[in-house]
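=== RUN LOG ===
request id: a7f3
mode: sequence -> structure
chains: 1
length: 848
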Amino acid sequence: MLRAAWKSLLARKVRLLMSTFAIVLGVAFVAGSYVFTDTLSRSFTEVFAASAGDVVVRPAGATGDDGNPTTRSLPADLVDRLADVDGAARVDGNVTTFGVFVVGTDGKLVGAQGAPGLGGNYTGAPAGHGVAGLHITAGSAPNGPGEVAIDEATAERAGYVLGDRVHLVTSSDRAVLHPRLVGIVQYGERGSTNGATFTLFDTATAQQLFLDGRDRFHDIWVTAADGVSQQELRDEVAAVLPSGVEAVTGDVASDEMASDLLEAISFISTFLLVFAGIALLVGSFLIVNTFSILVAQRSKELALLRALGASRGQVSRSVLFEAFMLGVAGASIGLGLGLLLAMGIRSLFATFGLDMSGTDLVFAPRTVLVSYAVGVLVTMVAAYLPARRSARIAPVAALRDDVAMPESALRRRTVLGAGLGVVGAVLGGTGLYADVAEPAWWIGGGALLLLLGTAAAAPVLSRPVLHAAAAAYHRVFGSVGRLAGQNTLRNPRRTAATASALMIGLTLVTTMSVLGASAKASVDKAIEQNFVGDLVVSNAIGVPFSPSVADRVEGVDGVASVARLRHGVGQYDGHGQGITGVDPAALSRVVDLSLVEGDLDRVHTGTILVSQSLAEDDHIAVGDRIDYGMPVGMRHYEVVGIFEDNPVLGYPLVTTLDTLRKAGFEPADALLLVGAEPGVDVSALRDRVEQQTAELPTVTVKDQAEFADEQRAPIDQLLVLVYALLGLALVIAVLGIVNTLALSVVERTREVGLLRAIGLGRRQLRAVFRLEAVSIAVVGTLLGVALGVVFGVALVDALRSEGLEVLVVPGVQLAGFVLASAAVGVLAAVLPARRAARLDVLRAIATE
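=== RESULT ===
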């Protein structure tokens, strides 16, 4: 039986390899995601190992909940006090800030798309365990306000050499600097910074720029003497620290930094694994269909094996053996493709500033084990039902000429599909509308069951479409159309199974289309209704910019008002929650801020405004006090107003600029909303504002339409990425159509020969197969579009409180999906139809 299974596998290797493509893609996503995330983890672990000394002394709340440093700092005299601690070899005070970016000689920012721009003072202190920190490799350390050192990767990318004037942009009061480059530094042992840029001044200059000239530090590194462990030194240091100051080992500090960042970008792995699951789910339909057809075609062969003494278990295991080898082959190819995928993702992230070229790809044993387990398991599970069906072939069937595999009862499939659909709808509705833990799992599980239920009931659901297509074919194409229509109706289970693979891909594409169109329309409506200003000044790379920019803009001729918006993230009700700082008087001139309760005049330092949705969810009323964790500690703010949800503000909590400053947040602006004086030409005003920001490539000036475009841009980028990945699922579905038709040609060889013998031409025969493929594609598309619209409408309704106020079903786009699917059907039928047309008539008739 093993020898027979091998021969069967080799005899059908081309057909089976087409099915393998689905496994290859699914395993490639799994392997690629693990390789990339493991590489990412090692890369940041190495980088952050050089980011902390043996012991790090810092203020409690030194880092906000958004990961950015705050205004909390330490007195400089603490350095001298710590120098006397037993076990301390040296003590260095550090000034560190985000938002210092290098502008290259070509006028473009260096490494600003996603990677941080770090600034501070140069000390030459070693990192923990004697690892090299930032150290000079060329030139000298900076000395005085006119000198700077930058890391070697940044210097190379920017085109600067020692002695050049460096163009810097900062988020401090001095927005633009032009110091002379006197030193090149290397970061750590290998010099890898993962795309981040380092700009270093002498200590006095750094304190002047980033600490308002105060003799203080953001944190202090204590280096351990020989033979002293980090924990021992940490205990000695902690014993002499004042209240409000904490000491942690360098290992803990670096692990915190790496963990926070890796958690923030963990969506990458989740994103890839979701698409791996989609590819494998779509591929399982292809594998089920392929093995079902192959078992049906080999029914006589399998019956003969039974007649020769093979047991049911042996026949079933022979089919499963073929599936096992198919899974192994697919997983092996998928592993190799996964490595290429990980390399591609690493290169893609490098274009956004996250450059990991200095870290080798990590190929862990876990990746191999999981990839093979997934590839083999999915293939074996998908082939299980066809294998069981093969064992039911009676030995006497070998004596008959009209052997055919029995079709599953349509009534049973319909009942199963309806049951799965009901359970899926309940689970999905619970996740969308009920207050449950982990709603994403409820929604995902419900959507999966709805998809599987629709696939199970597809033979019945597709009948009206197939009957309509058959009637249309007969009317338009005559006898050729009638043949095509009858062929699709002859085996509705197979037709529906092939269409189901396409249905899954189109369901997800349609859902994202509805969500994307609704999100963009909601953004347009929100900006049109809420933003009554004329211009928006923002940072092109999504980080705060210098408050001096607003000072410049306020002095521009024709500007009536400038509203500053500053953002922070603190702790509210046990989780991170953003807050916006504004000047209420300036804001009211450019934003239509409608209060449901309260009075805008009551907003002052120590008070807060709450959005209507948050107030309803948490039962907050005017006069209540809410607890909010700021960098300086827990604060209690009086609620003086409740406002209608306004996406222009960004967050559901709003307070004053002074409140944020006193709470420890950096005084840097996220947005400037500019109002023009009556009668001023906005286009001319924009030109004058842009002149004030000409030296700041990080800052952009936009009118209302461009601001709306900017808010829509992330949605479009996400949709492009999702469509590209879902396109792979559609490719698998198209291969399913090709595979089904190709196997159908083999199965209908005698029928094709008889049709040719009675006068059906080759062109007519090719038309029959094309029309069959179009029917399959259209059935899958219609089912997918219908489900996708249902999913999309439900999600938009559930997310209405999150700002999706406008429901848009992109009818033209969905109609395009149907037409494109019909074209895909035509293309999928090209090779099978050509093969059928080339069959020798006499040999085809003689085929058994």
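=== NOTES ===
Residues 401-408 have pLDDT under 50 and may be disordered.
DSSP finds 27 helices and 25 strands in the chain.
=== END ===
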